[in-house]
TrEMBL record:
This is Uncharacterized protein.
Length: 570
């Protein structure tokens, strides 16, 4: 995962400004430690910090067309680049980079080529022939991108807002599935799938179609020229990613370079649910498994650094990002630069435990649509920034465009949780991989109850965070929180503590407004809180907050300490 910075239309285009762009681009070097590039044309600058995954030797950026009149800086992977190259036979490619097709597609199709890209990406492209430019972000927002405006009328784009903080008067998260065009003077949506309107689909469920779509999504993400692995928590989603990758690894180009044994990684407190489940899955699949540990204190000590990298004060995101951040550092030390991860499944299939209370299929489907639309502010942000903090790229097969289209076209009646029919959360996905002849996973893993990552690494992790926050934030501080933080006012001591750290690191109003807010229970949207009257009194993102649903609600599976619902808001 790379870091990009583009500044267009600056007033001062001297060497002094070039030095400033280089300085700001270095703030993104953790994302791309392998090489740095900068192209300037008059008052426009395109900078790049590269993490080399495909074509490490010649794919340095920025990238160009044949005569270098089109310049592009890209963060991401284009999985269908070989197929796209076949339609660009009249063009001469300089590198083997998957991202070089963007410059040539623009030459052939103008601004209307973005939907042809199958991958995760954010890019800025400059056409020096008329000094126009475009910027675009992938359909779901897997890769981060921010848009800012300078005092001098310049327009800025960056992978992380820390590169915009000092020089932009205002900045916002670049909306997923959008393109910015200097010719047309603003943003427009390029990604317009049927599900986006939230109308209720009616396609019958077909387990074979769903399974094969996911297998294709995993296989295409095994495109790499460097060692890779799978993040394996032992839950359904990561286990399916590992099972499919393991089944198809021998057929991939990666196997010829790096061998046919899959590497898997898991982190948790000693004795945590995830560690046990992940080891069982790894043993079943025969992977080379790496079990990593951290302590509550090590996690607490990392919180400020985590917030600096993930750029949010959202409680759920910080809880889950911290172990992922620590795990990524250890993975990088083993020489791995790319991992597959299981984000997105819960949003698509209604996998969070609060979906047990969905009153009907219409509301379930609309909630899944809302969750997918917000992924760039939560799980995509976490997965990308927690790993890229250490120069690792995370790829997410569940957020494949084709797979999302297939999954979101299914009549949502099939996604409803129906105990009377033996259907637990994500039954349609579990059933698609329930193969007695050539099983992907053991039955009890395939039907394991949903466990949120921040819970599964060890329940005492969340309890420890709350205890630590309580020692930092007094009752009086929380009582007056609405005066100190009038926007997105924190309602818990844990939230207040994270907000204090965030404000110290990112003091601008644009930064605090980039973080979403509103009530939530077990990761729900504010709308879904209305499904159960009791939830409004128990607002917490932990899965254990879904009272009457989670099998281990308020039980600590690691410590002997019991978290009582009457005196702890879990």
């Amino acid at each position: 995962m790379c870091g990009i910075l583009a500044v267009l239309g600056v007033v001062d285009n001297s060497q002094l400004k070039r030095a400033r762009i280089i300085e700001l681009s270095r703030r993104l070097r953790h994302r791309g430690p392998d090489w740095s590039g900068l192209h300037s044309y008059q008052d426009c600058y395109l900078a790049h910090q590269r993490l080399a995954i495909v074509d490490p030797t010649s794919g340095d950026q920025p990238l160009y067309n044949e005569d270098k009149t089109v310049i592009v800086t890209v963060n991401g992977e284009i999985y269908n680049h070989k197929k796209l190259r076949q339609g660009l036979s009249s063009h001469k490619f300089r590198t083997g980079s998957d991202c070089e097709v963007i410059a040539h597609l623009y030459e052939e199709h103008g601004e209307e080529f973005v939907d042809m890209l199958d991958g995760m990406f954010s890019f800025v492209l400059l056409d020096t022939k008329d000094k126009s430019f475009i910027a675009a972000r992938d359909a779901i927002g897997i890769t981060p991108l921010y848009l800012g405006w300078g005092h001098d009328g310049s327009i800025w784009f960056a992978s992380e807002m820390k590169a915009l903080m000092d020089d932009c008067e205002r900045f916002i998260p670049f909306p997923p599935g959008h393109i910015y065009s200097s010719k047309q003077g603003g943003l427009r949506r390029w990604y317009n799938p049927p599900w986006f309107s939230e109308s209720i689909p009616s396609t019958p469920y077909d387990s074979t179609i769903l399974r094969e779509a996911f297998e294709r999504a995993v296989f295409k993400r095994m495109m790499t020229d460097v060692p890779f692995g799978v993040l394996l928590s032992g839950g359904l989603d990561s286990s399916l990613v590992a099972a499919v990758a393991n089944r198809y690894l021998a057929k991939s180009d990666a196997a010829r370079q790096w061998g046919s044994q899959l590497h898997t990684f898991c982190i948790g407190l000693k004795g945590s649910p995830d560690l046990k489940a992940a080891q069982e899955v790894a043993d079943y699949l025969g992977t080379c498994h790496h079990e990593l540990h951290f302590t509550v204190q090590e996690g607490i000590d990392a919180i400020e650094e985590v917030i600096y990298h993930i750029e949010t004060y959202d409680v759920t995101t910080i809880r889950a990002s911290t172990p992922m951040f620590l795990m990524s550092r250890k993975i990088k030390s083993l020489g791995v630069k790319m991992v597959l991860s299981g984000e997105g499944s819960d949003e698509i299939f209604g996998g969070y435990l609060y979906f047990h209370k969905a009153p009907n299929k219409e509301e379930l489907h609309q909630e899944t649509c809302r969750k997918i639309k917000a992924l760039h502010l939560y799980d995509c942000l976490r997965a990308n920034k927690s790993t890229s903090a250490w120069g690792i790229e995370a790829r997410v097969p569940f957020l494949d465009k084709e797979f999302i289209s297939t999954s979101m076209a299914i009549d949502p009646e099939w996604k409803m949780i129906r105990p009377d029919l033996g259907r637990i959360e994500k039954w349609v996905l579990r059933n698609a991989f329930d193969d007695d002849k050539t099983p992907y996973l053991p039955k009890h893993i395939l039907y394991r109850q949903k466990e949120q990552f921040s819970d599964g690494v060890g329940y005492s992790w969340i309890d420890g965070l709350k205890d630590h926050a309580s020692a930092q934030v007094t009752d009086a501080m929380l009582k007056h929180a609405n005066f100190v933080y009038p926007e997105n006012t924190p309602t818990t001591k844990e939230g207040y503590h994270y907000r204090t750290i965030f404000e110290k690191l990112f003091p601008k109003n644009s930064a605090r407004l980039s973080v979403p807010g509103g009530p939530s229970v077990a990761c729900s949207t504010a709308k879904a809180v209305e499904w159960d009257a009791a939830w409004s009194k128990n607002l917490d993102p932990s899965g254990r907050a879904a009272l009457g649903v989670h099998a281990d609600a308020y039980k600590d599976a690691v410590d002997t300490k019991i978290a009582e619902p009457n005196n702890k808001s879990l």
